[in-house]
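Deviation from plan, reported transparently: C2E complex.
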Amino acid sequence: MLFLADRATRDTLKRLSQVRKALRESDERYALAVRGANDGLWDWNLHADDIYLSPRWLEMLGLEGAQPPPGPSAWLGRVHPDDLPGLHRALDAHLSHQTTQFEHEHRILHADGSWRWMQARGLAVRDDLAVPHRIAGSLSDITARKGAEQALAHAACHDALTALPNRTLFLEQLDSSVSEAHRAGAAHFAVLFIDMDRFKAVNDSLGHHVGDGLLAAFAGRLRACLGSSDMAARLGGDEFAVLIRSVAERSRVDSVAERIRARLAERFVISGREVSVTCSIGVVFGDLAYPDGDAMLRDADLAMYRAKSLGKDRCEPFELDLRDQVIAQRALEDDLRDALSSGALSVAYQPSVDARTGAIAGFEALVRWAHPVRGWLSPDTFMGVAEETGLVVELDRFVLRRALEDACAWRSEIHGARSTCLSVNVSDHQFQRADFADFVVDALSACSLPATSLSLEIGERTLMSDSPYARANLARLHDAGVRLAIDDFGTGYASLGYLHRVPVDTLKIDRSFVSAMESDPAAAALVATIVSLGQGLKLRVVAEGVESIAQSRALMRLGCDQMQGRLFSEVLDAQGVRALAGASPRYLTMGPSRAA
Ligand code: C2E
Ligand code: CA
Ligand code: CA
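Because the crystal trials were delayed, the predicted structure below was used instead.
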């Protein structure tokens, strides 16, 4: 028994000495760790309300050698007033057993006047009744970590390129404006949705470097248009949004939107290059019917989309029926994308007639779309969407390739088709692509068609454009022998200076002038001027949309080279072209009545 007791005692003593050793080691380890971690120590006697602050604690706050006031106010008295209530709560929670460890992050005033973020950790020491009489622990400087955290938080809700708030932050702020309106029972704010027009063209033609510079400069100018309570954000790409708070009168919003539009249309100079862009703005007013900011932003987007489809560079307010219209528009966009891959697009042709011989001089390729639900669609219904989405690039290339194939087949099948010319419409977008001229040259050689039998119909905007891509494409096409025609001549720009600079062969008089010739003397005079301008510059002049014998006679009298329109032929499919060209009609010599 005694032996056993002795043994138990020995065991206990042994264990006790092990524990002491471990404790000593752990104490030392703790001291080492604290020193290594550069932490300060504190020890607070709760009964005496006295606190010990280690030299390192004081040094961390620039208080070495200072005489801190007695008691815990040496610490608590320096804590940032915003953080003090939280610190008290954390202490109380631990002292009253709600937490197993005390831990709190707060700012403490450094002797140099700056705020330092500190993390305090500690444990209470309790008596037999579990009443705490002492609490002690460490203090670590986490200012650097907090700074990094704040930088990350800032980055998470700001756009790096423009430094504007991003979509997340914008929606957060808009959501709180919406909730505020619900609480107050009235909404006095508005949202502008701003999208740059033709940003893609700038980016593609002048490079990303200029594109980025433009976005940053655009953002800066946008911010400068706003009051201090308003907020601008970059939603992504070339889309921006503005939240206008405290709208007393709707007219103020309209004038802010108008001011923004006008300011942003002024010329920018980016990396030494002059760049002009416009923007389309959608405006929506706060309304209690909006459940959240997202719904409101969507409507602002719809209004912006409408501003685009009404010709860009304008502000449009949101209206309820827009939702249906835009849904239809977006559906059309999806359908067009499908059509491009499913083969629902085809190419139709309209002949042009030589005004002197009456023979067919060429064919203009015109895209057609067999829509699965809506039937045959003419380009006027979908060209806007194709341009806006950039799908026109793929569309034009499809038409060009198909038309060249057809023309090649006619040449081998139809006697006399060798001298007819093929005209293909190409969008301005195409000329902003570095590879466009190569694409055309390759497509021609794939069909072994001479370049001189192809004429590309382009808008005046392309010719006026000072983008290096447009200039390079035009020059390369010209050098290859491809002909260039100015489509819808007279409807675009008043300036004619560019005619001397660019290598065009043909002017196409817009059908609106031709159709007004008989009733409007001004239109007749304009047509006469265009014909003599063409003669003076040695350009071929083609009149389009010729519908009546009177129009054709007047055009022939003026000396117009070619005519095109329903008077001679409707738009035909490829089979119709075979039949017509095979018959080698002589429209004018047979008399226009035959064709009419
Ligand atoms: P555009 O180049 O001015 O083409 C002539 C338009 O006039 C065609 O309309 C044609 O069907 C129509 N037309 C023909 N004869 C007459 C007539 O006697 N009277 C009247 N009032 N109109 C006549 P369409 O095919 O609807 O094309 C409309 C526009 O769409 C074209 O105008 C052209 O700018 C564009 N477009 C057509 N196909 C393409 C294409 O493949 N690529 C591109 N980028 N644009 C195209
Ligand atoms: Ca045309
Ligand atoms: Ca035209």
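The CA atoms of residues 22 and 394 lie 77 Å apart. We consider this an acceptable substitute for the interim report.
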